Amino acid sequence: MQLLGITGKFFRVCEVISRLAYVNLLWIMFTVLGLGIFGFMPATIALFAVTRKWVMGDKDVPVFKTFWMTYRSEFFKSTLFGVVLFVIGYIIYFDLVILPTGGMFNLLRLGVFIFGLLYAIVLLYIFPIYVHYDWKKSMYLKYALILGASHPHFTLLMLAGIVALYYTVITIPGLIPFFSVSILAYIIMWTAYQVMRRMEISQGIDHEAVATNQVIEAR
Fold this sequence. Notes:
The chain is mainly α and 219 residues long. Helices cover 80% and strands 0% of the residues. The protein has nine helices and no strands. The radius of gyration is 19 Å and the shape is globular.
């Protein structure tokens, strides 16, 4: 039975809220099951796989099945990929810490800082690209940087949403266990999806083929 009017809108809002809370709890649970360090990447990939479905209009996606199948199939591959991302980030952080100031070192620090900004852009786009395309790992890094840097207005929009979410959960800490990560993933996935669609259109890529030809798909 389809509910209309205010009742229908209220029901849909409650449904969205419950789904976001549910997938947020799944992310926490599966991250803990992976002992944190090993569960973070596959749980995050699984979260984005579910969020991708919602962004693409599939509101009836089986959340647990999609999450679990993605988590299981991507456990080792995503963990290794996470190690690569962590090592790159650690090198950038380490260089900024140990480099002294003054003279030519300021120029070196500026170069490392710029590289750090590019790395931050990659982190914003890497998960949406990972769950949307079936590519080699090096391609994910390349296109995460290209898409983020070539669409600065969308990147800034994404950052604005992240900042707004941050201040919201800081103001209302009770939201953290239920909505913090799921809403963050939705903000990032929705914004990145707009960029990816524009790239597909500009390059004449078949969107339907992309939607059905990526590896992270519950079967």
